[in-house]
Amino acid sequence: MLFGDGDSPWKAIFKAAEKVGGVEYYLIEQEGYSLPPYETAEKCLANFRKIHG
Predict the structure, then answer these.
(1) Reported confidence tier of residue 53, pLDDT bands at 50, 70, 90
(2) Which of 3, 18, 19, 42 has the largest count of CB atoms under 10 Å?
(3) What is the distance between the alpha carbons of residues 44 and 30, in angstroms, rounded to a whole number?
(4) Where would I find the H helices in 1-53?
(5) Distance of CA 48 to CAs 16, 40, 41, Å?
(6) Class of residue 19 by CB neighbours under 10 A (exposed 0-12, middle 13-18, buried 19+)
(7) How do residues 22-46 score in pLDDT, each as one tens digit?
(8) At 51, is the secondary structure helix, strand, or coil?
């Protein structure tokens, strides 16, 4: 499953991480997906931008 797919409450997770945890940067790691690596990275980044804004 790609980052952003599924039922995880990412908006709430980001909000808590930034407000309470002081997070400044995110690192998204995706392993073992059926798409080529660059296509997988593009889709994960698009999902991140859609969720995080």
Answers:
(1) confident
(2) 3
(3) 8
(4) 10-19, 37-52
(5) 16, 12, 10
(6) exposed
(7) 888 999 888 878 899 899 999 999 9
(8) helix
Extract the tokens encoding 40. Answer: 């997988």
> What amino acid is encoded at 48 in this protein?
F
Q: What is the pTM of this model?
A: 0.80
The confidence band for 7, taking pLDDT boundaries of 50, 70 and 90, is: very high
Cα distance between residue 32 and residue 25, in whole Å: 23
26 burial level (CB within 10 Å; 0-12, 13-18, 19+): exposed
Rg (CA), the chain: 12
